[in-house]
Amino acid sequence: MDIRLHDLAKMIDHSLLHPTMTDAELIAGCQLARRYDVASVCIKPYAITLAKEQLSGSDVFVSTVIGFPHGSHKVEVKLHEAELAIADGAIELDMVLNIGKALSHDWAYIRNEIKMVNDFTVSKKALLKVIFETDFIPQEDLRIHLCKICSELAVGFVKTSTGYNYVKQPDGSMAYKGATDEVLKLMRGSCPPSVQVKAAGKVKTLDDLLRVRALGVTRVGATTTAEILDEAKLRGYHN
User: Fold this and answer.
1) Which long-range contacts (CB under 8 A, 24 or more apart) does 48-52 make?
2) Which residues, listed in sequence order, are joined to residue 184 by a DSSP beta bridge?
3) Residues 126, 86: Cα–Cα separation, whole Å
4) First vs last Cα of the chain: how many Å apart?
5) What is the CATH number of domain 5-234?
6) Which of 8, 69, 20, 71 is nearest to 220 (CA)?
7) Annotated catalytic sites, by residue?
8) What are phi and psi of 122, to 5 degrees?
9) pLDDT digits over 158-211, tens only?
10) Residue ranges per domain, the chain?
């Protein structure tokens, strides 16, 4: 096969973000990520130093989240979060943009927010991923405009979702679509190759990973890392 197991593993940011996760569970998650040699552990901000200790000497780095999960923090707060995260050892930051401002077409605000955090992040030789939360921004023209801003500011990645913001359905239930083929094709087609695409939300199986990879996605957020990579081994993917 042209795709190696290592290639698949290095597409994965192993997600350790659920609010109920204990320190013991975070440590176990870091150990799993180290064992499978994924790209990064995306961990709750307070636990960056814990993850860095657990991953010391490995090729797995530490990433974290900014303005998570609703994106409504003041710009100054997001910038301070970025400063603390990088000081603690994170080298990639997944930031939720201000969803209400995007829906209000306040592009000056959106541009300033992304620029401030991205400029600081790049100055520290780190990388910013901008989370659109596409379930809350269903309008195609708004998604394209966000891609345009992110491309002009040269962010590292555009990212679909947090996986935590559910949308109320007509029957009153809460659900989300996450990283659909439709949104991934639009994001990949609306950004230059220099801006990568991260899929998050409902990427749970090897088939999901292979499907989004074929659409041009280079990174995914996943909680089912072991299941995905164990299945890849069973299907004959090797390093």
Assistant:
1) 48/85, 48/88, 48/89, 48/90, 49/88, 49/89, 50/23, 50/26, 51/16, 51/26, 51/89, 52/88, 52/89
2) none
3) 8
4) 10
5) 3.20.20.70
6) 8
7) 94, 159, 198
8) -65, -40
9) 999 998 877 777 887 777 888 999 999 999 999 999 999 999 988 999 999 999
10) 5-234
